[in-house]
Design a protein that fits this description.
The complex is a heterodimer.
Chain A (H helix, E strand, L loop, with lengths): L1 H24 L11 H5 L9 E6 L6 E6 L3 E6 L21 E2 L2 E2 L9 E5 L2 E11 L4 E6 L5 E6 L8 E5 L5 E5 L21 E9 L6 E10 L2 E7 L7 E7 L8 H4 L5 E8 H9 L4 E13 L4 E13 L8 E7 L2 E6 L5 E6 L4 E6 H9 L3 E5 L2 E4 L1 H4 E6 L5 E6 L4 E6 L4 E6 L5 E6 L4 E5 L12 E6 L16 E6 L6 E7 L7 E5 H4 L25 E5 L2 E9 L2 E3 L2 E6 L3 E8 L8 E5 L7 E3 L4 E6 L5 E6 L12 E7 L8 E3 L4
Parallel strand pairs in A: 13-18, 36-39, 38-44
Antiparallel strand pairs in A: 1-2, 1-34, 2-3, 4-5, 6-7, 7-8, 8-9, 9-17, 10-11, 11-12, 12-13, 14-15, 15-16, 16-19, 17-18, 20-21, 21-22, 22-25, 23-24, 26-27, 27-28, 28-29, 30-31, 31-32, 32-33, 35-36, 36-37, 38-45, 39-42, 40-41, 40-43, 43-44
Chain B lengths: L1 H36 L33 H14 L24 H9 L1 H7 L1 H9 L12 H12 L2
The chains are: A mainly beta, B mainly alpha.
């Protein structure tokens, strides 16, 4: 009894001291409750969050937008997956966005968002994401929060060390996780070794339009290129990729690709490759990939098949690629804000390996090589290694930075975030996560200028964190305050799909330039109606085109006759509203695609193929006004043999 | 089967009759109701009231009109009206909303512009705008993000109607 009393008193005293310290160090203290976790995440009704956070949706194929510190979800941006909520991937305009060399693909696995940068700082123009499964990169506008472009990556498979951008958004970089035959061909799987290739793709970004162009692919040895990050500051012009399966095993990988004590971080001097290609280097290879572009004036996506790609043999560009030995199948490959340190997280290790960019350059200068792999020089581990973080954790995965000299690394196996200091490699703090954390994100934590106030840990396992919802649950995330010496767990919130990486930025970078409407007078959609007098119905063989407009609360026209069974009926609907947040929806009974949600000033088209004679209603799906329930109409569908003329009307007109 | 068909027929017959009677009484009621339910001081429907002294609520406080009608402004205004307003307003008849024909005989230039620029504020704070909303079945006028200059052009066009 006495013992436990003593213990209690000690704990009480300690906690008093600790809370005292916390209040003392918290400069933004607003009073007695300033240190409470609840107050730190509470965003009062009508107030707004400090940060945007873009969490990848993993197998949902989409990107979700959250506010920090509240953890509230604001939007799901459809990218690689059909999304009936808005009609993305179902509407005639957006179907081309999901076209690939494999045909129409309604889904992907979205992993890594990265916000565009200028001089290594977030600039909030675009956000880039990767489709992992059918390799693609997408560009999303941060003015409209809509997917504007998707480019397929040929010669790649498991597009995982993507989509990471260089410090002036010169390139989006996309590396293949799975090595494959290049070009693809019919060959025995067990002849992988020495024959498969690992393509690293460099996609240039037009600084005005954002348009993507697959400029060149480096055909690396057939390792698995797992993650990557750009150099910055002094190391700008380089890009670093972690690798595993340098064994080049093709079966029972969980054993066979973990044989080597060290795999590599590949250091790529992309400026040298760029120069080489600009001077006519590389070879043109026949290929076939889709490049899909959405135009927000025509509100329409177009898909173009590209037939050629420039490939580069890395051994032909001397001094441009080096391997840095890194223990235990490194996963995360992160570069600190100064660009000096490259952190390799050996996922089967307890330790982190930190390479020095300066030491790497010295070793290259002095040609201190430790052999080569397929003609690519391997540097000596001891020559490039700057330090090791002996964390005591297990299964390090990913590292972000606070801009104050500290790094934060997730440990999957031991379920924790560990804070450590760059340069001394000393562990400062560690906090548990719930459970089995994958990536973490500090807004700007992958740039020259992090905003080191919060870190979000995104977990793979949820178990008991929320009310149970059957065997399948959304993944959990935790937000920590990292403004002090010690991390403080603030809040726990569910996420959508399976977030892998995320990107965040201060709210003011995006909020003021977020677009409110599409201007009707800028609408260049070929089927738009500029005013209701242009609303009409036209027949072209068995195609019927209905040019329709909406405004609160009616469709023009709302009575249509002369449609026949077997017709392909296209509803082209222009929303004539010009006020913020007044979309109209459109749905018709038996619609095999999905509804449309049409933003003010926008035109969208839905294909309807009536199969039964009758008078079929359509209606607005978005509760748009007090008279929303009245926003409806009818299409009369006659037998295929009918000779009823097309007619349309609204009211008595 | 025969029994079921008989029921259907008889139901159909009843429905036809009902429909007629509903239509008749409905039409009568619609015309009467707004005036009846109006809590306003006068019995004249809002669309027929003359409120030339009322400038409405909003950014336009004073809008003197030139003696001559500016035809360039009229042309621009007509185009803007066609794109942004004709879904609900027809010149030749009452539609979702009232016709703008002769509106300058009933409303002040300031009121018209304020209504175009911020219909929501007007409905909240201006008595006449509120009564119009009730008279027109609660069909709220849409804010079409019209600029001050554009609203002025539309006003000039209204002078010609």
């Amino acid at each position: 009894m006495k013992k436990s009393n003593y213990f209690f008193v000690t704990v009480l005293a300690l906690s008093l001291i600790m809370s005292g310290c916390q209040q003392g160090t918290n400069k933004s203290s607003n009073g007695a409750l300033a240190s409470s976790a609840a107050e730190k995440v509470y965003v009062a009704p009508g107030e707004q969050d400090e940060f945007y956070a873009f969490l990848s949706g993993g197998y949902s194929g989409n990107l979700t937008v959250y506010g920090l510190p509240s953890g509230r979800m604001f939007k799901e941006i459809p990218v690689f997956s059909q999304f009936p909520t808005s009609g993305y991937g179902y509407s005639e305009e957006t179907k081309p966005m999901l076209n690939t060399s494999h045909g129409f693909i309604p889904w992907d696995d979205l992993h890594h968002p990265d916000i565009s940068q200028t001089n290594g700082e977030l600039d909030g123009r675009w956000i880039f994401v990767n489709g992992n499964n059918t390799p693609r990169i997408a560009r999303i506008s941060l003015a409209t929060f809509e997917t504007e472009e998707i480019i397929e990556i040929p010669n790649s498979a498991g597009n995982h060390s993507s989509a990471f951008i260089t410090e002036n958004t010169e390139y989006v970089i996309a590396g293949t996780r799975f090595a494959v035959p290049v070009p693809q061909r019919d060959m025995p799987i067990n002849e992988y070794k020495g024959n498969f290739k690992g393509a690293l793709s460099f996609i240039s970004v037009d600084q005005e339009s954002g348009r993507l162009d697959l400029k060149f692919q480096i055909m690396m040895p057939g390792f698995n290129y797992d993650l990557s990050h750009p150099g910055r500051g002094a190391s700008h012009g380089w890009h670093f990729f972690s690798t595993y399966n340098t064994e080049e095993a093709n079966s029972l990988m969980e054993v066979n690709s973990s044989q080597n004590d060290k795999d590599f971080i590949a250091a790529i001097n992309w400026k040298k490759f760029e120069e080489y290609v600009n001077n006519g280097g590389g070879s043109k290879m026949a290929t076939n990939y889709a490049h899909n572009v959405y135009d927000d004036r025509t509100h329409t996506g177009t898909s173009t098949m590209v037939k050629e790609v420039v490939t580069v043999d890395p051994t032909q560009v001397p001094g441009a690629v080096f391997f840095l030995p890194t223990p235990k199948s490194p996963h995360g490959c992160d570069v600190d804000p100064s660009g000096e340190y490259i952190i390799g997280a050996g996922k089967l290790s307890a330790d982190l390996t930190i390479h020095s960019f300066t030491k790497m350059l010295e070793a290259i200068e002095n040609e201190k090589f430790d052999g080569e792999a397929y003609g690519i020089p391997i540097l000596k581990y001891e020559d490039v290694m700057a330090g090791v973080v002996k964390s005591g954790g297990l299964g390090p995965l990913h590292t972000e930075f606070d801009g104050k000299g500290n790094a934060y690394t997730t440990f999957f196996i031991s379920s924790e975030v560990v804070k450590w200091e760059l340069g001394t490699w000393e562990v400062i703090d560690r906090k548990p996560t719930y459970y089995s954390v994958g990536h973490l994100m500090i807004p700007g934590g992958n740039s020259r200028k992090p905003f080191g106030k919060y870190v979000v840990a995104m977990n793979k396992i949820t178990k008991d964190r929320y009310l149970p919802t059957g065997p399948e649950m959304e993944h959990s995330a935790q937000i920590y305050d990292i403004s002090g010496e010690k991390m403080q767990l603030l809040y726990d919130f569910p996420t959508h799909g399976e977030p892998h990486y995320a990107a965040g930025c201060p709210a003011e970078l995006l909020a003021s330039k977020s677009q409110k409407i599409y201007r009707l007078d800028e609408n260049e959609h070929p089927y738009a109606v500029a005013n209701p007098s242009e609303a009409r119905v036209e027949r072209d063989g068995n195609e019927v085109h209905i040019y329709m407009s909406t405004i609160r609360s009616h469709f023009t026209p709302d009575n249509i006759e002369g449609v026949k069974v077997g017709d392909k009926v296209y509803f082209h609907i222009t929303n004539h509203e010009q006020d913020f947040d007044v979309p109209h929806g459109f749905s018709i009974i038996g619609q095999n695609t999905s509804e449309l949600l049409i933003m003010p000033g926008q035109t969208k088209s839905s294909l309807w193929e009536p199969k039964q004679v009758g008078v079929w209603p359509f209606y607005c799906t978005d509760f748009c006004s007090a008279l929303h329930q009245e926003m409806q109409g009818y299409v009369r569908v006659s037998p295929a043999s009918s000779n009823i003329e097309l007619s349309w009307s609204l009211g008595e007109d | 089967m025969i029994f079921a068909a008989a029921i259907l027929i008889s139901c159909g017959g009843k429905e036809d009759k009902k429909e007629d009677s509903i239509k008749l009484s409905g039409k009568k009621e619609i015309k009467k109701e707004p005036a009846k339910s109006e809590a306003s001081s006068d019995e004249v429907p809002a669309s027929e009231r003359i409120t030339l002294d009322n400038k409405g609520v909003g950014e336009v406080k004073d809008m003197p009109l030139g003696d001559e009608i500016d035809q360039e402004m009229v042309a621009r205004g007509a185009e803007l009206f066609k794109t942004n307003c004709t879904a609900c307003h027809k010149v030749d008849k009452r539609f979702i909303g009232p016709s703008p024909k002769g509106i300058l005989n009933r409303r002040s230039p300031e009121w018209i512009m304020n209504m175009i620029l911020d219909p929501q504020l007007m409905v909240e704070q201006d008595r006449c705008a509120k009564d119009l909303l009730i008279e027109f079945n609660g069909a709220a006028m849409a804010n079409q993000s019209i600029t001050l200059d554009e609203a002025r052009d539309i006003l000039e066009y209204f002078r010609t109607l």
